[in-house]
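PROTOCOL LOG
Step 1. Enter all chains and additional molecules of the complex.
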Amino acid sequence: MTDMKSRTDASRRLILALDVPHLDIGLALLDRLEGHIGLVKVGLELFAACGPRAVQEVKARGFGVFLDLKLHDIPNTVAGAVRSARGLGVDMLTIHTGGGREMMQAAASEAGAQTCVLGVTVLTSLGPQDLQDVCITGTPAEVVEARARLAAACGLGGVVCSPKEIGTVRAAIGGSMKIVTPGIRPAQAEMGDQKRAATPKDAILAGSDYLVVGRPISSAQSPAEAACAIVAEIEAALAEKR
Ligand code: C5P
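Step 2. Run joint prediction.
Step 3. Record the structure below.
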């Protein structure tokens, strides 16, 4: 696991979504954020563009890595991918809970102590009709709850969910697993394409452990100042919870 001792508890909980097509652009942004954030999300776009090098370069700058590949395949294949990601020193890695019990157990068994495998429950882009179309019965909320419970039973380290689902998911998985939430917008920020966003404060108070934030930081005039303001909000919410 990446050594983040120099960060505050609040800044360790902030994950920057590095949604860029080229590593150089991303690294230039990271150079402006040293000390302000704990982890960096490397997603499909960047990983497809430059692969493990993205993870290595982010780690070399002292940031933890949240590798968001949403793995969904047969258990043996996913186990192998988790092993490879663990070998890269990834701190967090996502898989799809829709891959089922055996796949999740296989992923958990390969995670080791340093890599937290997180289950994505239901993509927030899917509504009730989308679930019906693929023969999944139950409302999105019911499916989220059932899958979060199954993720816990399979030994995953945490769950990724939208801010609106934090309460349900926390009740389903208990206190020891991590909850990671995207869809975060500081009160004054542009919503962009996020429709059901929450502020950093509300997400932390609801029970989230880590917040994934992209454009409110990367598109800000001063990314460092924007990250600092979010960290301060996280800090205040943590103090309010104590
Ligand atoms: O720029 P923004 O803060 O909206 O970025 C949020 C990040 O979280 C993006 O990388 C996006 O893919 C991811 N995400 C999301 N909503 C979800 C799941 C993931 O915004 N439901």
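Step 4. Note key features.
The two ends are 26 Å apart (CA to CA).
The mean pLDDT is 94.
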